Amino acid sequence: MIAHRIACTTLATTALLIGQAAAEQEAGRTSYSPVVIKEDFATVMKRMIEAKPGIQRRHQQLLQQRYDMRDLPSSTVTMSGGKPVQGGVRVRLVSGVKGVTWDMLAELTPQEIRAKGLFPAGFLPLPHPNHPEGGMLFPKFHIDEIKLQTGRDVARFDLDFDLPDHFLPEFPPPIYLTTRTDLGDVSQGRLVTTDNYYEMFDGILNPKQLEGLRLLVTPFPQQQFNATADRRSVRPSLGVSCFECHANGHTNASTHLVGDIRPQEFRHRLDTPTLRGTNIQRLFGSQRALKSVEDFTEFEQRAAYFDGDPVIALKKGVNTLERGSQVHFMAEFQAILDFPPADKLDILGRLDPDRATPQELAGERVFFGKAKCAICHVPPYYTDNLMHNLRTERFFAPTMINGRMANADGPIKTFPLRGIKDSPPYLHDGRLLTLDDTVEFFNLILGTKLTTREKQALVAFLAAL
Questions:
Q1: Has residue 265 been placed in a domain?
Q2: Chain-wide mean pLDDT for the chain?
Q3: CA of 88: how far to CAs of 173, 417, 446, in Å?
């Protein structure tokens, strides 16, 4: 009898352990973030700080394998505020295979490139610096300026931004308004924050727009930056503002992971797009196809700030904006953010032959002809306001890259190309560091077989937009 009881107890315990293991395994596949944190904050922070060097070293090794990361600015092309644009193709070709060149690669079919493993690694999806963890991550120059102006700290204790400053947009970026084109750069070299927005814009904006701007620079709780123990800032945080990523209504190339894909390894990295030209766009979000800037503004606060998890949002302090006024005011300001001036373009968005160089004019002919760019990027703003699936998965077998399962990208919004030189890096996840990389990418994806001279001319044209 005793032996029977012991056996039953052992079986029950085994079953319980198996059940717990199954539950833990199932929990790893859940769509929801953990609400109850099992470790205290000090323990979590210590563990993550200790792991940080190894995580960052692994990611930097990946970047060095993919790209030529040197600071090699153009001697002739600058962004609107004067920062030099990085030149040249930075994506590295596959090493160890004799005779591989960009021209040779362009002669192969997608199936041949996939079978031979020749798709350049820099054309594969780019992982987050710590993909299993994810979350908002800001360049150091932005962190420093926010701390200087407002005293807030938007640094993470577990992770630093990954791309060098010379591959990022100028900071602070200029601000151009559709309503006051006579003013030029309204920012005058300053980053707009809660400390200066009123002084900078009172008398330029109407009261609704001014209130919208205030809300855009006001910090609200977010997944990594909040007042709970489940945060990634050393001290409890007020949160982040919309302009933490969209600095001055443009972009500072801050990164994050999309909130609408599960499981974690399939989530795409996000490169923050500019808000310039919001008024001419009809789709919002790199791949989400939201139908209005109001939808985008509300979605960001309610869902994207918390990885698309409304349960965790309630825990961390979701800011539920009022649609009829607050969302409307924020959208009204976003809708007057203009593209930078392009003196070589006429009113139809085409090059003025009297102002453009021969190379730029040649690039325009390639853009509207052999390169097929204009099929999607229609003047005057160089977008068709549609989504297109490039089907990059034709070129490579699915593969795990530092916690990111590289597979199909899916439909991607056609971004406007006006002012494109101001917005590196490129593509929805920032995998392309320069305009030259972008031309090589689409030359391969579209099979256009451009010559070296045609590629150079196309880059020159894009820089003039």
A1: yes
A2: 93
A3: 23, 19, 20
DSSP 177: B
DSSP state of 351: B
For the record, the structure tokens of 113 come out as 């490139």
The tokens for 396 are 């490579």
- Secondary structure of residue 388 in the 3-state scheme: strand
**How is residue 97 written in tokens?**
């295979």
Within-domain flag for 356: yes
Task: Give the domain extent around 380.
Answer: 52-464
Length of the chain: 465
Residue 36 lies in a domain: no
Q: Within a 10 A sphere around the Cβ of 100, how many other Cβ atoms?
A: 14
Q: Give the mean pLDDT of 373-382.
A: 98
Q: How far is the C-alpha of 230 from the C-alpha of 225, rounded, in Å?
A: 9
The reply to whether 418 falls in a domain is: yes
- Measured between alpha carbons, how far is 189 from 53 in angstroms, rounded to an integer? 34
**CA 133/CA 424 separation, integer angstroms:** 24
pLDDT at 28: 56
DSSP line for 187-232: TTT----TTTHHHHHBTTB-HHHHHHHHHHTS-B--SSSSSSSS-S
Identity (one letter) of the amino acid at 414?
A: T
Integer Cα distance of 134 and 138 in angstroms: 12
Q: Return the amino acid letter for 337.
A: L
232-236, 241-245, 260-264, 385-389: least confident range: 260-264
C-alpha Rg value of the chain to the nearest Å: 24
Which helix (H) or strand (E) element contains residue 139? none
Domains of the chain: total: 1
> What's the gap between Cα 326 and its chain centre?
25
Measure Cα distances from 122 to 56, 165, 201, 445 in Å: 18, 18, 41, 13
Residue showing tokens 């801050």:
254
The sign of the CA dihedral 69, 406, 31, 296 is positive
For 41-169, list the strands marked E by DSSP. Answer: 73-78, 84-86
Residue 402: other Cβ atoms inside 10 A: 18
pTM of the model: 0.92
Q: How many helices (H) and strands (E) does the chain have?
A: 13, 8
pLDDT digits (tens, 9 = 90+) for 329-340: 999 999 999 999
According to DSSP, residue 253 is labeled -
Residues 40-92 have pLDDT tens digits of 999 999 999 999 999 999 999 999 999 999 999 999 999 999 999 999 999 99
Residues of 215-228 as b/e, b for ≥16 C-beta within 10 angstroms? Answer: bbbbbbbbbbbbee
Phi/psi at 328 (5° precision): -60, -45
